[in-house]
Amino acid sequence: MTTEIPPVAKQVPTERTHHGDTVVDEYAWLAAKDDPEMIAHLRAENAYTEERTAHLEELRGTLFEETRRRTQETDLSVPTRKGGYWYYTRTVEGQQYGVHCRRAVRDGETEPPVSADGAPLDGEEVLLDGNLLAEGHDFFSLGAFDVSPDGRWLAYSTDFSGDERFTLRVKDLSTGEVLPDEVPDTSYGIAWSADASVLFYVTVDDAWRPNRVWRHLIGSPAAEDVVVHQEDDERFWVGVELTRSEKFILIDSHSKITSEVRVIPAGNPTGEPALVAPRRQGVEYSVEHHGHRFLILHNHDAEDFALAFTSADAPGDWVPLIPHTPGTRLESVDAFADHLVVSLRSNGLTGLRVLPVGGGDGHDIDFPEPIYSVGLDSNPEYRTRQVRLRYASLVSPDSVYDYDLVTRVLVLRRRKPVRPGPDGREYDPADYEQHRDWALADDGTRVPISLVCRAGTPRDGSAPCVIYGYGSYEASMDPWFSIARLSLLDRGVIFAVAHIRGGGELGRRWYDEGKLLAKKNTFTDFVACARHLAGSGWTSTDRLVARGASAGGLLMGAVANLAPEAFTGIVAQVPFVDALTSILDPSLPLTVTEWEEWGNPLEDPEVYAYMKSYTPYENVAAVDYPAILAVTSLNDTRVLYHEPAKWIARLRAVAPRGDYLLKTEMGAGHGGPSGRYDSWREEAFINAWILDRLKA
């Protein structure tokens, strides 16, 4: 059967009217997930995509093998100490998922144990083997994984479809028995009581909003569980966690711009949640327990946040600890017995600041590279003088450090191995260059760009380039290392990250200037970055591919309409391209909680008109678009599969001369395939398409 002719989706005109504006949606029928005709259409699209990319099969195989060859498949993470155990995860060659383990701490042992070539540690105890759990399933994901304070119980949750609806279970680590008290349809986030007799967990409402925190008594039926807190405001979602000190259960209610925290003493899990501070519209705060006080990280009269504290016994006024400094965004605070570690960002880079509790000057931890990403890793011990850090750059593989808070000595525990590539050469960061450049946006704002390429890559406009962007939710695209990316760099491709407004790279203002009625700055910033790269010798428009995912997929669709001539190809993964339709429907997952990010087009005609003016699906035009590859998943609950399906259908109808492909994972969720080998194959598929477009 030939599939050279692209699938044509039938048109069933469906009207909707808002604020006097009537819109016809010919492809609304594609939202019927259980419609056999819709499933047949997606399968036809997959067959067409496979046929159109059949010539890339050998290249896909080559790229997959390059990733596999460069990856140490049998591997073991740096063990983390908690109580009397070292906890770690290891992977085994040929197996898709990690094996979660622990090993008892031995007398006099202060350094994390190591093993040769990722082999199991002597005396290890397997807590959970993802490969065994995944048997018989096309998809597998862990939502929760938390050992009780006494080390006896393991609470974990599993998802076998990708819809992020987890089943929570408890395993007795002393016997290996999985208890009968099973809880279906849970969300992320769990917390143990101090004596491990009670487990708190979260469930969602019909719109997939985490709205309830429950208390479960170990050994009892789930039907007897009690709702501890219910969030009725549909703008807010809830979470639950145990403080590092193991003294309090935190229940956090959060909207996009407002928060409220309640606490329950971990030693009295049946107690009523006590409010730390009532919610005030536009004020965000988080709580960390430290001795006699609660640390409060907040943005009250502090755009980039300040740090304060209040009494843990009787929360009241917030006493300043670190004042607000414009341009230095305080992102979180981690409390240890004798030190505080503040995670922050300044001048577009992440950083860590250490504050001794007993007085003395604080200090920032220094790192040598000009562009990098650093943050705290897992640090479960409250009484410690050493913290675990994670570090990476565009050329430095993921690294784990231990930092002595007193002596200020930084010890490299492990750098992720990168095995020799196809040419047999060892990976050497010196073979690559990383740069920071700046583009000038339409309104005169300077927008940072991070770039990486092979050393000696020409700056005469001849090099192919991929430009990546996101630009929403204050999420920062900090530099990250990728083994799969090396296959592009070694073929002469430049990889660039546009740090556009809507993200958080340059503080809260950077985010505010790319949301609501300023959202178009996100799109024009990205186009400005693309044109800067093409105009300053990095690349040229006929050798530039744009890539983004989720809200970054909205970005891809918007720039395709805004500047189709600026790119030779666009990759849009799980793209939020029918944003107006989704944000108009409060019954859809997450819609109401999103109104403070995009605006509420149901109630506000100005928001409606503004969103309609940029939503990709609404603005498809009869122009020459670059080639587009859209990748989605049938079970995605964050960006529903029908958004890209409708988008591709309308592109084919309105601009039929274009080259448009849709690839749908029929058994996955928002993150795509779950197994590591399946993920590598997916990345190889995308990169092969990119290389073909770039003629690289």
UniProtKB/TrEMBL annotation:
Gene3D superfamilies: alpha/beta hydrolase, Prolyl oligopeptidase, N-terminal domain. Keywords: Hydrolase, Protease, Serine protease. Residues 6-408 form the Peptidase S9A N-terminal domain. Transmembrane segments: none annotated. Residues 480-695 form the Peptidase S9 prolyl oligopeptidase catalytic domain. InterPro entries: AB_hydrolase_fold (IPR029058), Pept_S9A_N (IPR023302), Peptidase_S9_cat (IPR001375), Peptidase_S9A (IPR002470), Serine_Peptidase_S9A (IPR051543). Pfam families: Peptidase_S9, Peptidase_S9_N. SUPFAM superfamilies: alpha/beta-Hydrolases, Peptidase/esterase 'gauge' domain. Belongs to the peptidase S9A family. This is S9 family peptidase. The lineage of its organism: Bacteria, Bacillati, Actinomycetota, Actinomycetes, Micromonosporales.
